[in-house]
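I hope you will forgive my troubling you with a question about protein structure. I am sending you one protein, given as its amino acid sequence and as whole-number tokens for its backbone shapes. Thank you for your consideration; the sequence and its tokens are set out here:
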Amino acid sequence: METPLLIFNENGIYCKEANVYLDPWHPVDRAIITHGHADHSRWGNKEYITHTTNVPIIKHRLGEIVVHGKEYNEKFVVNNVTFSLHPAGHIIGSSQVRVEHKGEVWVFTGDYKIENDGVATPYEPVKCHTFITECTFGIPPFKWVPQEQVFKNINQWWANNREEGKTSVLFGYSLGKAQRLLKYLDTSIGKIYTHGAIENMTEVLRPQVLFPPTTLITRDTKKKELIGNIVLAPPSAHGSTWIRKMVPFVTASASGWMAFRGARRRRAIDKGFVLSDHCDWEGLLKAIESTGAEKIIATHGYTEIFSRYLRDQGYDARTEQTQFEGEMNELNTEPEEKPAP
């Protein structure tokens, strides 16, 4: 039997013909990286290839590395295998990887979403024979509302808290989610303060995106300065000593997992906003249909449920184990819990 163009082994997703890995989870000689989140871009590879806008991100996170930037749709050949990167719409600098050899085309999505968030380069469907897709939110109850409504709700929540003389603390990943939130916060309400992790990453990205001004919280920041304003912080800051100086404050989290019943309550979050950098159920199905692929490989998420549904629809679908997490650990939410209707 002929070896598939891409295989899954102990180090990651491997193209034997090119001797190249895609988002490996153990150090390898040459790695093509889809985006800057820690589960997809790990330290220790001898050589990295990624989109040009992701280069400063992974250098910020990983330090001195050998990295080569490629543009979207730019073809490059490694040992007679043709590769190209295409917009994934997940976060700034995120890519799908197209792999072509002897007329066979595979696409690895990394993480992706089809909604244009106005920050990341919008998702681009890529025709292929085999499509490797995440399915973090791959069950029917997950259905996102347009982000315009979500941000309207977030800004109204902030305005209400300001009227009550409270600080608004909004949690989101320091890379991707935080910048998406920052882009659409209404600065007519007040000032935007940031946790150091978010401030540092945002400074890396400011040359690429126009963001509103932010103020870094330091030891010298007074509680009275924060009252009525909003603070962007990573989820890890919740419950930390860092947050105590903000009393009285109200907390909220922006995550796809806020669709789960009890997720907000279990983490002692006052408010939840359903906002994800991944596809919902319908988004996944639309993306798959747009590729024209007959073979689908489902990774990280509701893989068994999702692949079984695809088989029922006539696709040649299967699952593969990876060490990618998507948003699975964002709030330590158990995937068996039922989403809210």
Remarks:
- The chain has two domains: 7-142+277-319, 147-273.
- The CA atoms of residues 190 and 229 lie 5 Å apart.
- The first strand starts at residue 7 and ends at 8.
